[in-house]
Amino acid sequence: MTEETVIYQCSNIGIAGTTPVHVKQHEDGMLEARCGFALMGATNMTEEAFAACDHNPFHEKFYDNYSTGKGEDEGKAIAQLKANMKATADSLWV
To answer: Per residue in 77-86, pLDDT tens?
Structure first.
C-alpha cells in the first residue's frame, strides 16, 4: 500500500492537530485514520520527539494524544476521526 499524507485543519475550539492525518490498513482490511492533537495548546511530546517518529501517530515511539477513526474506506475512516475529534473538543466545554 502506498502511504499518502493528507493535512486537514482542525475546526474545533480547544483542540489542534499536531500531525498530519495518517491512514493505515489493518490485516482485516479495515482502515484506521489517526491524527495527533494538542488540548488547549498543550502536548506531551517535544518537537524533537515528534520529528523522531515522523509526526506519525502509528509510530511505536509516538506517545502524545491522538484521535482515531475506523472505516471500510478512507473517507469513512476520516469521517469517524473528525467526529471523534469533535466529541473530544465538545467535552472540553461541558
So the answer is: 999 999 999 9
